[in-house]
């Protein structure tokens, strides 16, 4: 005879989202718009970095700003899901960063570079992979210069990494969605379209079963 399971199957949590793409492609700009419109849906995975904070950046919100020694100790201690060196600085996603977001029942968004994408593919995180690309390298350079956050050396390193990123993002199977950020409003609509399913899923769950979240 049919017996129901003793425990209901756990509801599979919503898939996290990985945003990647060259420095200056517009990831932070798009992310901030998305988090503002859907603050009850998405939560940002706050990475650790050894780079200096830029004016306006907040420790614990944009990044956890740490020394190389502290970062290396955390890596050695197994506290990171992935870590990479980008433009001479260390960056990494801690297990706690992702758990903090998931504990709030929000969809976790990670802003990570191409090495991070490759490494996350070897974990069980199973995110949706989205690449934000600039219309061209020239436009990217102009945006990075206009942002006025980088030294000439840092800018050149980012442009070099951008060329590699732009090539790798074309590899079949690397990303689920590639968005060209030419006009910001159009890129934002495309990002929302790419995430429509997870947004609707979350909002439906919240509406149907208020106590679920
Ligand atoms: N692998 C990895 N990359 C990260 C992480 N956090 C940020 N990054 C990437 O590091 C690069 C540099 O980030 P940042 O210094 O904030 O410069 P920006 O992207 O130009 O604003 C970007 O490609 C980010 O996506 C992380 O935790 N892991
Ligand atoms: N579609 C766009 N058109 C023009 N400028 C943009 C556009 N998207 C972003 N920017 C600007 O380009 C710069 C880089 O964007 P940012 O979000 O910091 O990139 P990332 O986080 O990928 O490094 C910022 O100064 C931002 O205001």
From TrEMBL:
It is an enzyme of class 2 (transferase). Pfam families: Guanylate_kin (PF00625). It is found in: Cytoplasm, Cytosol; Photoreceptor inner segment. It catalyses: GMP + ATP = GDP + ADP. Keywords: ATP-binding, Cytoplasm, Kinase, Nucleotide-binding, Transferase. GO terms for molecular function: ATP binding; GMP kinase activity. InterPro entries: GK/Ca_channel_bsu, Guanylate_kin-like_dom, Guanylate_kinase, Guanylate_kinase_CS, P-loop_NTPase. GO terms for cellular component: cytosol; photoreceptor inner segment. Its EC number is 2.7.4.8. Residues 14-196 form the Guanylate kinase-like domain. It comes from the Eukaryota. CDD domains: GMPK (cd00071). SMART domains: GuKc (SM00072). Belongs to the guanylate kinase family. NCBIfam families: guanyl_kin. Monomer. Interacts with RD3. This is Guanylate kinase. It comes from Periophthalmus magnuspinnatus.
């Amino acid at each position: 005879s049919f017996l129901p399971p003793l425990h209901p199957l756990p509801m599979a949590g919503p898939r996290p989202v990985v945003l990647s793409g060259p420095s200056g492609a517009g990831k932070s700009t798009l992310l901030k718009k998305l988090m503002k419109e859907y603050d009850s849906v998405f939560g940002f995975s706050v990475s650790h970095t050894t780079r200096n904070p830029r004016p306006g950046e907040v420790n614990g919100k944009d990044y956890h700003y740490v020394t190389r020694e502290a970062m290396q100790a955390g890596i050695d201690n197994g506290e990171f899901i992935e870590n990479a060196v980008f433009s001479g600085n260390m960056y990494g996603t801690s297990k706690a960063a992702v758990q903090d977001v998931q504990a709030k029942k929000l969809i976790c968004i990670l802003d990570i570079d191409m090495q991070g994408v490759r490494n996350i593919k070897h974990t069980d995180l199973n995110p949706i992979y989205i690449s934000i690309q600039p219309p061209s390298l020239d436009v990217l350079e102009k945006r990075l210069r206009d942002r006025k956050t980088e030294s000439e050396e840092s800018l050149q390193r980012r442009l070099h990494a951008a060329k590699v990123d732009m090539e790798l993002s074309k590899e079949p199977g690397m990303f689920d969605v590639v968005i060209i950020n030419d006009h910001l409003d159009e890129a934002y609509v495309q990002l929302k379209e790419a995430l429509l399913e997870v947004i609707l899923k979350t909002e439906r769950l919240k509406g149907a079963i208020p106590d679920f979240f």
